[in-house]
Amino acid sequence: MSLSVEKTMVIYGVAALAVCMLVGATVGELLGAALNVDANIGGVGFAMIMLIVVTHQLRRKGLFPEASEQGVLFWSAMYIPIVVGMASAQNVVKAVSGGPMAILAGLGAAAVGFALVPVVARIGGSDEPLEPLATPTADEKQEA
């Protein structure tokens, strides 16, 4: 039985997600070791930023078809809630007891994240301003 081209492209999208996750986790572990913290520091964040950058570059070059994008979208719909749940269950007391370096690393990661919001927002945005949502008039509210 052979896979269709579309299903193969979905697999490539999932593969791109997996590679970004593995590289991000490795970078997080190396950052933790470099800062002498026994934890993965920002691995998931690095993976997600890398996935955004890589898929954007591939789309611009026409090397990331829509079917591959569907593979990424499928797993991102499941992946993000799972990772947020796992991250919220981490032992915060241990991180804080690790000293000021853990707190500084967290604050630094948050600052970089806030600074990158405009950059990431420009990646997928168009040059046209968004139309404001129409607010219903009093007559329309009564009809509903």
Comma- or semicolon-separated keywords:
144 residues, mainly alpha, 0% strand, extended
Write the layout of secondary structure elements.
Elements: H1 5-34, H2 43-60, H3 66-88, H4 92-97, H5 100-124, H6 138-143
Helix pairs in contact: 1-2, 1-3
What does this structure look like?
This protein is mostly helical. It has helices at residues 5-34, 43-60, 66-88, 92-97, 100-124, 138-143. Helix 1 packs across helix 2 (43-60) and helix 1 (5-34) runs parallel beside helix 3 (66-88). The chain is extended, with a radius of gyration of 20 Å. The model has no long low-confidence stretch (mean pLDDT 77).
Structural class computed from helices and strand pairing = mainly alpha
Task: Report the major sheet.
Answer: none
Order of helices and strands: HHHHHH
Please, what is the average pLDDT? 77
What percentage of residues falls in helices of 4 or more residues?
A: over 70%
Task: Assign an overall shape.
Answer: extended
Rg calc: 20 Å
| Percentage beta strand | under 5%
Contiguous low-pLDDT stretches (5 residues minimum) are none
- The counted number of beta strands is 0
Number of H- or I-type helical stretches: 6
Question: What is the structure about, briefly put?
Answer:
The chain is mainly alpha-helical and 144 residues long.
